[in-house]
Structures are given as C-alpha cells and as structure tokens.
Design goal:
- This is Tetratricopeptide repeat protein.
- InterPro entries: O-mannosyl-transferase_TMTC, TPR-like_helical_dom_sf, TPR_rpt.
- Keywords: Repeat, Signal, TPR repeat.
- TPR repeats lie at residues 319-351.
- The protein has a domain at 353-441.
- 73% of the residues lie in helices and 5% in strands.
- It has helices at 2-32, 39-56, 61-72, 74-83, 86-89, 101-121, 127-150, 154-167, 173-184, 188-200, 226-235, 250-263, 267-280, 285-297, 301-314, 319-329, 334-347, 352-362, 366-375, 380-410, 415-427, 431-440; strands spanning 207-214, 220-223, 238-246.
- A three-stranded antiparallel β-sheet has the order 2-1-3, with helices on one face.
- A hairpin with a 5-residue loop joins strand 1 and strand 2 (220-223).
- Helix 2 (39-56) runs antiparallel to helix 3, helix 6 packs parallel to helix 8 and helix 10 crosses helix 12.
- The longest helix is centred in the N-terminal third of the chain and has 31 residues, at 2-32.
- The protein starts with a helix and ends with a helix.
C-alpha cells in the first residue's frame, strides 16, 4: 500500500511541475507578444525564464523547443523595451548593444529549432513572426558582423554571419562570408565545414548588382533589385543606371577548400573535390583555373601545364594562365617562358609581373657573371676576359631596362622593379635617370 502512495505522490509532483511550467510558458508568451514591454515586464520575463528552466528539462519536445526560443529572446525583449524610449527611437544601431555574438548564435539556433519543429508538426505559431523578425533586423546584424571584421574579431564575425545564415537559409552568401572570416581568423576547420555546406547547396554567388547615380549628391547608390533601381530612375531621384555582373564564387570556394585540404596533407581529397565540382559545373570556368592552380600549388607542373593549355583552347584570353606557364617554364625553358610572358602582356598590357619576370630572364646570368669577374686577376688575358664579361653584362642590363621601366610606370610602388631599375641605371651610369627614380622612391 505504501508504495502506491509513493507512486501517487510522484505522479502528483510531476503533474504539478507540468502544470507550473505551462503557466511559465504562458507568461513568457504573454510578455513576448507585447509590442512595447515595460521595465517591469522585462524583469518578470527574466525571472520566469529562470523559474521555468529546471521544470522544462523533462517536459515534451514542444515545451523544450518553445522554452529554448523564449530564453534566447531575453536580449530581444530587453531591446524592445529600451528602443521604445525617445533617445533610442531614431538610432537603430543602439539595438545591437543588447546582443553579443553568443546571444545572436543562441537566437539563431533556437529560431531554427522552432521553424523545423513547426514544419514537422504542421502547426505554425512563430514561423511567420521569425521570418518578419529576420527581415527587420538582418541588415543591422550583418552591419554588426562587418564591424566585428573591421576590428579583426574574426571569430565573432564568423559566428554572427553563420547565425544570419541559420536565420535565413535562402541567403547562403552570408555563409560564404562567414567561411572567409574563418580563414582570416585561421580557423580552417570551421571554414572547411562552411565551404562544404556551400558545396552541398551548390552555391555559386553569381548575380547582377544594380546601381544608379543619386541626383542629391551624385554618389552611385546600390539597389537590391532591378525593379527598385528602375523605379528610382523613373521617378527622377536617380540617373545613369548601371548593371554589374558578379562572377561565380565556386572557383574560390573550391580553391580555399583545396588549399586547406593540402595544408592538412589531404592532397588526393583536394584533387577529388575539384574534379567532382568540374563535372557538376562544366560551364564554370573559375573551377578549371582552381583545378590547375591546385597542381601548381603541389608542384605537379606537368599536369598543371596540360590542364592550362587545354583551358586556353577554350579561353585563349587568360593573361594569368600565360603568366603562370611562364613561371613554370622559366627554369627549364627560358625562351618558352619569355614567349608566355609576352603573350600575357599582349592580352593584358598592364601585367606588371610579366614585365618584371621578363627582366629577370634577361638578368638570369648576372650573378654567375659577377662571380666569374671576381675570380679574374690582372693579367692581360684576364683583363680581356673582364672587358668581354663587362660588355655582356652591360648588354643584359640594356635589354632588361625597358621591361623594368614599363613595370615601374604601371606600378610605381613595386619595390622589386624599382630597386632593380635603379641598379641598372647606376651600372649604366645613367645619373639623371637614377636621380629622378630615387626621388620618387
């Protein structure tokens, strides 16, 4: 008999706890649903969260999901009360002082749990409201992430942008930027994870951006759609509409994945990933460049050359490809390397590195010549050899000079080109030119 009373008492305690937690959840819902909660409401909300937490642990999935959501909304409720004050009403950025990267991550995780649960249950309570909340606060949260990145708080910026993605999975671009912040913070495992997710959803990031000039300040403004831009031009607030196409980001995504995998010693996996990407996206030229560069990175020059020459058949106007072919040919076949560099310059006349490397090919023997000159004595025969070597060196410098001059003209801040050109001027006793160049350095 006694055991029956114990069981009865236990059942009563459990049912009382369940009843209590239902009351707590109702209180939280009531306060959350207020447009402008008072300071008293905020205090009650926080104390109710603390009271309900131990009760919810053994409750239903629904109670656990909604309680987690309500708990993550504490900063949101605090912000709603504070932002109703006149001093904050016209300053939306003030809202962010109530949030931290951790609290934003918590809100994103619990919001996602709610929408997934409501999709499964077929009964929508907060899904629409969450979507509206995301639409309202997403620009402010993204601005917050950018400011964190500017402060070099890369881990926090990564977390916030990942949260934005969880809140709105229709916008995978935010996950792409989260992965890049992770790279900046040297958190390569997280970057690889996020890039893997982008690969799964086949994100390309290819899009068209819309711009037009404002008549107010003559600045070029960005518009989130063609319709809104065209409307601004139509009503007369803007002029000079311009479209700008953003290329696919797939190549960069796979390049970064490959570099991380190579760093981790998983070279074959990196090659496999890019090969799969090329099969899935045969028209995406950025992936062919990425695949070739992987072989360049791993010093498999023969395969690299084969891939690049194959790609050049389809896209013969890639200055970068010709430049890279020049680099890998410079030791084994300097003449072929020079032809590649010249081809790169023909396509892109401002390809500074090709000019510098052409000069480098002309000056390749300089060190050996100087060493040979140092070994010579003062005999008539040695003096004759010295004069021959000096003439050869002078001829080399004269051949290299136009390439260096062009490189400095294009990029005056190129230290390698400038210092080498100064040495050439000094050796050739071109005093005026050396003085003028030194004044610009």
């Amino acid at each position: 008999m006694k055991s029956k009373y114990v069981l009865l008492a236990s059942a009563f305690l459990i049912s009382s706890a369940t009843f209590a937690q239902k009351d707590e959840l109702k209180t939280l819902k009531k306060i959350y649903d207020k447009d402008v909660p008072s300071a008293k409401d905020v205090a009650e909300y926080k104390s109710t969260v603390a009271k309900a937490e131990p009760l919810v642990a053994n409750s239903t999935e629904a109670d656990q999901v909604y309680f987690g959501f309500y708990k993550s909304l504490v900063p949101f409720v605090e912000m709603s009360e504070a932002m109703a004050k006149p001093e904050n009403a016209k300053n939306p950025q003030a809202a962010m002082k109530f949030f931290t990267p951790a609290s934003i991550a918590d809100l994103a995780k619990n919001s996602e749990r709610v929408t997934e649960f409501e999709k499964k249950s077929g009964k929508q309570v907060y899904t629409k409201e969450i979507e509206e909340m995301v639409g309202q606060f997403k620009p402010t949260i993204v601005s917050y992430a950018v400011s964190l990145g500017e402060q070099k708080r890369y881990a926090d910026a990564t977390s916030v942008l990942h949260s934005v993605y969880l809140l709105d999975k229709k916008d995978p671009e935010k996950l792409y930027y989260a992965a890049n912040y992770a790279i900046n913070g040297k958190d390569y495992d997280t970057a690889l994870l996020y890039f893997g997710e982008l690969k799964k959803v086949n994100f390309s990031g290819e899009k068209t951006n819309y711009f037009a000039k404002s008549k107010v300040n003559d600045n070029e403004d960005f518009f989130d759609s063609k319709a809104s831009r065209d409307n601004a031009v139509k009503i007369g607030t803007h002029t000079t509409p311009r479209d700008e196409k953003e290329p696919s980001k797939r190549g960069e995504i796979y390049k970064n994945m490959a570099l991380i995998l190579v760093q981790q010693g998983k070279v074959e996996e990196a090659k496999k990933q890019i090969a799969e990407a090329r099969v899935a996206n045969p028209e995406d030229e950025s992936l062919s460049t990425t695949e070739a560069n992987l072989y360049l990175q791993t010093k498999d020059y023969a395969t690299y050359k084969t891939l690049v020459l194959k790609d050049l058949e389809k896209n013969p106007n890639s200055a970068v490809s010709y430049y890279n072919l020049g680099v890998i040919s410079s030791t084994s076949n300097p003449k072929e390397a020079a032809d590649y560099y010249k081809k790169a310059i023909q396509i892109d006349p401002k390809n500074v590195d090709s000019y510098v490397n052409l000069a480098g090919l002309e000056l390749a023997e300089d060190t050996a010549i100087v060493e040979e000159m140092k070994k010579l004595g003062t005999s008539a025969n040695d003096n004759k050899k010295y004069a021959t070597l000096q003439a050869k060196r002078e001829a080399m410098f004269k051949k290299a000079m136009p390439f260096l001059q062009k490189a400095v003209e294009i990029d005056p801040k190129n230290d390698a080109a400038t210092s080498t050109l100064l040495n050439v001027y000094n050796y050739l006793e071109m005093t005026a030119e050396a003085k003028a160049l030194k004044a610009k350095m």
